[in-house]
């Protein structure tokens, strides 16, 4: 069954009171695929961006059909069908990691996901950044962790993106540098370079899957979260996330962890090494010919391989960690 044909078994909104902003009436939109009362750990999926929304990760809902693992996807605060807060644009004190940790804690408690068999956590890109931080606190109920095209620090992210940029033709590299220097990201030379960059390193699938089109729509229709936390462009990280790092906390992660990225990923190997060196129980897989969204890339069966690797790792029935 393809992701587009999967139907949620439940969906709803969880009331969310933001610490320090009790006057705001907020909610988190979520979808469930499968039976949360089953004896299998639930897979909670954290999307990237920040601000990308859950749709581009719908293919992981197939973990219910194939492995009997219930899946929970949700839109983080500020995007998708969750509460938007455009009045907070530019507020770098507000848009910080603890906000999203509080939201995740709230979701887990509301759906009782810590109880019984507990839960797995799968974070992609920024979602992996959040997942690594959350796992480092050793939350009750966490069974296994998947860091999908994540990065151990934003400085490593910046370096990795620069390394990708240097693989472009020189004229395109100059167009990108010029756009960053001038703060103008609309010129034809920049847009052409950005398009080639996207097709080479972000998602190597043409035409774009509908799920990815929706993610880009989420990011462009409300730039509050991405613009404040990351910056005006993937090539210019100057937002509240710029100094972020998980490296000092990685050694405290006790959950068995799968780290993966793509060969051509903007989350390059330089950003995975700290995960591999510092998380006590960890595997690292790099998928050949994959980009940042290799779970959506169908060429040579790549998306299928990603789903199988993740599913086999999370399926604990009769398996031990080695």
Helix/strand layout:
Elements: E1 10-16, E2 26-33, E3 42-46, H1 62-67, E4 71-74, H2 97-110, E5 119-124, H3 126-136, E6 142-148, H4 154-165, H5 170-182, H6 188-202, H7 210-221, H8 224-229, E7 257-262, H9 273-278, E8 282-287, H10 302-314
Parallel strand pairs: 3-4, 3-5, 5-6, 6-7, 7-8
Antiparallel strand pairs: 1-2, 2-4
Helix pairs in contact: 5-6
GO molecular function, one term: peptidase activity
Pfam families: Abhydrolase_1 (PF00561)
Organism: Rhypophila decipiens
Molecular structure report:
α9 links the parallel β7 and β8 (282-287). The chain has a single domain (8-158, 210-314), classed as 3-Layer(aba) Sandwich (Rossmann fold). It is 34% helix and 15% strand. It contains ten helices and eight strands. The protein is globular, with a radius of gyration of 19 Å. An eight-stranded mixed sheet has the order 1-2-4-3-5-6-7-8, with helices on both faces. The protein has helices at 62-67, 97-110, 126-136, 154-165, 170-182, 188-202, 210-221, 224-229, 273-278, 302-314, and strands at residues 10-16, 26-33, 42-46, 71-74, 119-124, 142-148, 257-262, 282-287. The model is unreliable at 318-322 (pLDDT under 50). With 322 residues, it is α/β, with parallel strands linked by helices.
Outline the low-pLDDT stretches.
318-322
Q: Which structural class matches the secondary elements? A: alpha/beta
Task: Please identify which CATH superfamily we are dealing with.
Answer: Alpha/Beta hydrolase fold, catalytic domain
- Give the end-to-end Cα distance, rounded to a whole number of Å: 31 Å
CATH-derived architecture: 3-Layer(aba) Sandwich
Q: Mind describing the biggest β-sheet?
A: 8 strands, mixed
